[in-house]
């Protein structure tokens, strides 16, 4: 029989949902003086990197979305989610908010006072008495049936120019790439402001599970599962009235292009005169002192928005959960459709134009690109150079969307993503134990297992793998997964029905 090549092993691993690029570790058992190689899943969320791990990550997000969407009781918060950074907008991992990489921190806002009067070109928003509830209201139908609807909401950024099929600009020279890039860089703050405004107008702590995805034209749009029903007229009003003003120093004119500022050990100075560049605080003070100063950018949502009611359990709710998580495994620059050509010169040119614009735009107060405009970034250090900011928002893969792709409010399900992952593992163990099958010993090589001498029994070290060893490890992982899957299916058949989504009882 011919040997299994790495390519064959990878294709088989993808088919069996086994990690195709595992992290290899060598584990030495000090008690038996033996060693073995252990393959640890890479955990990537990108299909282009590892389809199997990306699939598992998407399934976990689907569970998280479904579990919190149509709750009828307030979720109980565990200790990991009970700590909030802000009383009006409790943040969980992945939710946008005050981030020193993307904007001002709380100390900056405390020192710098600016008028909170709303812009003249936006409408005022209503204020209602706030409520601490997070679940939606109950409605009664004429037949006496009670139901608690929720919502599916889609919002996007405005137009930057006419586009044709595939989202390609009809006239790239007239397409506003600069505005598109700036909107992408500040999209997370715009989304955060929307939820703040909506909660103040809706009168309860609106909870959501949202995903950020690129349209074909590469502009970001947001899909959100919103718990509870909110009048569509109010939603449209909040969308129109939501904006983010960026009060930064001007970056319209490049000062250093062919020559770059020099780090003298304490600050950046002009390479010719040796004069220190203005600091970030000095530049902001100048903006504050100018009575005619205007924000360098104002981000708003576009006019297109879609909102519809969803009632669970229903086929519509299940389809909406799948749609919400459909593109989470793709990078921003990846083709939206699986049927799209892998190489489209017009699309690649569109991506290149947007990426070129993003390369030198500042993404945050700490961005190295401020040196290009004759200004020292906040908290400068040696080695900074314009066009080489390490923030992922400048990467071609992200195209300005440097934040997380999944945004989840803290009181969505009362659990962190790790908690949902533990639930899924507990489901498997309970099913196996009910059927009298020993669950896989996940701690069989635990680093905290001690020998008789009180020292760790298992010693973990890094190891490299060759193509032959790679194929063998992948095949062993596939065989192990198939064995576990067979045991689990037999346990489910012997032990009755099993809730595949969670190990905890959920409200009906």
Automatic annotation (TrEMBL):
Q: Which Pfam families match?
A: RepSA
User: Which portions of the sequence form the region Disordered?
Assistant: 69-124, 489-508
InterPro entries per record: RepSA
Q: What domain of life does the UniProt record list for this protein's source?
A: Bacteria
**Compositionally biased residues, Basic and acidic residues:** 101-110
Specify the protein name.
Answer: Replication initiation protein
Please tell me the species this chain comes from.
Auraticoccus monumenti
């Amino acid at each position: 029989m011919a040997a299994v090549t790495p390519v064959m092993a990878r294709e088989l691993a993808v088919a069996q949902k086994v990690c195709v690029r595992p992290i290899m570790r060598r584990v030495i058992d000090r008690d038996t003086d033996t060693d073995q190689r252990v393959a640890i899943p890479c955990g990537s969320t990108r299909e282009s990197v590892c389809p199997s791990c990306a699939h598992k990550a998407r399934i976990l997000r689907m569970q998280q979305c479904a579990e919190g969407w149509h709750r009828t009781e307030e979720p109980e918060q565990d200790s990991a989610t009970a700590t909030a950074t802000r009383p009006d907008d409790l943040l969980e991992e992945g939710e946008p908010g005050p981030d020193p990489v993307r904007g001002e921190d709380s100390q900056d806002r405390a020192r710098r006072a600016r008028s909170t009067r709303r812009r003249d070109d936006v409408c005022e928003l209503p204020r209602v008495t706030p409520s601490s509830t997070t679940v939606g209201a109950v409605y009664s139908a004429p037949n006496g049936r009670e139901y608690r609807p929720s919502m599916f909401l889609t919002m996007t950024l405005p137009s930057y120019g006419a586009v044709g099929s595939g989202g390609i600009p009809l006239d790239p020279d007239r397409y506003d790439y600069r505005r598109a890039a700036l909107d992408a860089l500040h999209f997370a703050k715009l989304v955060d402001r929307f939820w703040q405004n909506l909660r103040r107008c809706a009168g309860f702590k609106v909870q959501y599970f949202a995903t950020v995805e690129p349209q074909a034209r590469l502009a970001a749009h947001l899909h959100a599962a919103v718990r509870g029903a909110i009048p569509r007229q109010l939603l449209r009003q909040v969308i129109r009235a939501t904006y983010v003003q960026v009060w930064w120093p001007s970056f319209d004119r490049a000062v250093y292009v062919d020559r770059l500022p020099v780090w003298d050990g304490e600050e950046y100075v002009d390479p010719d005169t040796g004069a220190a560049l203005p600091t970030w605080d000095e530049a902001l003070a100048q903006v504050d002192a100018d009575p005619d100063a205007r924000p360098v950018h104002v981000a708003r949502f576009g006019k297109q928005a879609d909102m519809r009611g969803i009632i669970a359990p229903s086929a519509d709710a299940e389809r909406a959960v799948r749609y919400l998580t459909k593109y989470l495994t793709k990078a921003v620059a990846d083709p939206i459709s699986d049927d799209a050509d892998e190489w489209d010169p017009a699309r690649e040119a569109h991506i290149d134009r947007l990426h070129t614009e993003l390369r030198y735009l500042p993404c945050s107060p700490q961005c190295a690109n401020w040196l290009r405009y004759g200004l020292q970034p906040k908290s400068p250090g040696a080695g900074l150079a314009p066009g080489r900011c390490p923030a992922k928002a400048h990467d071609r893969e992200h195209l300005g969307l440097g934040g997380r792709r999944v945004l989840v409010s803290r009181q969505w399900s009362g659990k962190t993503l790790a908690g949902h992952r533990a639930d899924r593992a507990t489901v498997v163990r309970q099913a196996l134990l009910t059927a009298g099958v020993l669950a896989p010993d996940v701690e069989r090589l635990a680093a905290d297992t001690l020998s008789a001498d009180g020292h760790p029994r298992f010693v973990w070290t890094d190891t490299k793998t060759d193509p032959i060893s790679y194929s063998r490890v992948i095949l062993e992982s596939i065989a192990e997964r198939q064995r576990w899957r067979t045991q689990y299916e037999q346990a489910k058949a012997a032990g009755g029905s099993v809730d595949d989504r969670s190990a905890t009882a959920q409200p009906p």
